[in-house]
Amino acid sequence: MNDKPSVIRETDGDARIQARNLMNKAAHAALAVIDPETGFPSVSRVLVAMDADGAPVILVSGLSSHTKALMKDSRASTLFGDPGKGDPLAHPRLTLRCSAERIDRQSQAHDRIRTLFLDRHPKSKLYIDFPDFCFFRLVPLDASLNGGFGRAYILSSEDLRML
Predict the structure, then answer these.
(1) Which burial class, exposed, middle or buried, applies to 143 when counting CB atoms under 10 A from its CB (0-12, 13-18, 19+)?
(2) Which residues form the CREG-like beta-barrel domain (predicted)?
(3) I need a surface site. Which of 4, 31, 41, 49 has the fewest CB within 10 A?
(4) Structural domains of the chain ordered from first start
(5) What mean pLDDT do residues 83-109 have?
(6) Is the pLDDT of residue 163 over 60?
(7) Core vs surface per residue 26-54: b (16+ CB within 10 A) or e
(8) Whole-angstrom Cα distance, residue 21 to residue 19?
(9) Which of helix, strand or coil describes residue 128?
């Protein structure tokens, strides 16, 4: 029998809004993938934009190790949130578990995502159409939100979906 209270709070509207805001305001995130050669986690920084339904979108080079990893295993995690002044652990952050879906260059989704990505990252115009670059949608499975001291939540994919 465990008499300890759970540190996880019941997910409410404020937690949903905070999680969505962390993703929507982010220009970049830390992307964690599984290295296909070693089986170890590997983390890198990627630029992000948000699709209409709230799924993060990344633009990556086929030459990068994280793209090769996503092509072999679609499981990934992203960390959103920037530490501010003082204790970096006192600032909100969101860890999103997701499934990466590569966007076909010939699809209508590609055109839509290309436009929204350029709106968020205009300097990516320099390389966005290079043949080795591609988009992935990071479809949310669930997330862990640390909204500040004593404010921990588990969110479902539905909690993260934009309405």
Answers:
(1) buried
(2) 15-157
(3) 4
(4) 13-82+91-155 (2.30.110.10)
(5) 90
(6) no
(7) beebebbbbeeeeeeeeeeebbbbbbeeb
(8) 5
(9) coil
- Write the CB contacts of 143 (distance below 8 Å, at least 6 apart in sequence): 19, 94, 95, 96, 97, 154, 155, 159, 160
Please choose, from the candidates 142, 137, 126, 111, the residue with its C-alpha nearest in 3D space to the C-alpha of residue 50. Answer: 137
Give the pLDDT of residue 151.
87
What is the band of 148 on the pLDDT scale with cuts at 50, 70, 90?
A: confident
d(CA 81, CA 25) in angstroms, rounded, equals: 9
d(CA 32, CA 55): 16
- Residue 59, pLDDT score: 98
> Tens digit of pLDDT for each residue in 38-69?
999 999 999 999 999 999 999 999 999 999 99
Phi, psi dihedrals of residue 35, rounded to the nearest 5°: -65, 120
Phi first, then psi, for residue 134 (nearest 5°) are: -150, 165
Instruction: Yes or no: say if 136 and 60 are a contact pair by the CB < 8 Å rule.
Output: yes
Alpha-carbon dihedral sign for residues 38, 41, 47, 53: positive
